[in-house]
């Protein structure tokens, strides 16, 4: 079996601009119902929905070995990183967990919460 990740979107053209153009994911297929991408061998299916109420938690995230570089790269492309009240985040918006992992959150054009995580071990 292979993992498929699903992300809802109300505008597939706008989603493609973000997921392909900003994040750099590879487009595999475009249909009237979905934008199919590939991220490091995993299929990401951005599915057309008529309406969307974004959830207040991460729905899709990436593990990285260079979180500061990845955050700076996306910030340079206009992506705003989310800051959460009560969480001590550095100047880039990266939070360090008590165990030493680092996490940064951002949103896609539909308001879906996405994240980068750099694990300490």
Automatic annotation (TrEMBL):
InterPro entries the UniProt entry points to: Glyas_Bleomycin-R_OHBP_Dase, Glyas_Fos-R_dOase_dom, VOC_core
Residue ranges the record marks as coiled coil: none
SUPFAM superfamilies: Glyoxalase/Bleomycin resistance protein/Dihydroxybiphenyl dioxygenase
CDD domains with a match to the protein in the record: VOC
Domain VOC: start-end pairs: 1-119
Name assigned to this protein: VOC family protein
């Amino acid at each position: 079996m292979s993992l498929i990740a699903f992300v809802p979107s109300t505008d597939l053209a706008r989603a493609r601009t973000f997921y392909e153009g900003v994040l750099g994911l590879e487009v595999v297929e475009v249909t009237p119902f979905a934008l199919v991408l590939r991220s490091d061998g995993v299929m990401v299916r951005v599915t057309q929905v008529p309406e969307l109420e974004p959830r207040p938690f991460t729905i899709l995230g990436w593990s990285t070995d260079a979180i500061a570089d990845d955050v700076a790269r996306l910030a340079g492309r206009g992506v705003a990183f989310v800051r959460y009240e009560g969480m001590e985040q550095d100047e880039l918006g990266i939070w360090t967990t008590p165990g030493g992992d680092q996490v940064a959150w951002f949103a896609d054009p539909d308001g879906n919460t996405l994240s980068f995580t750099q694990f300490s071990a």
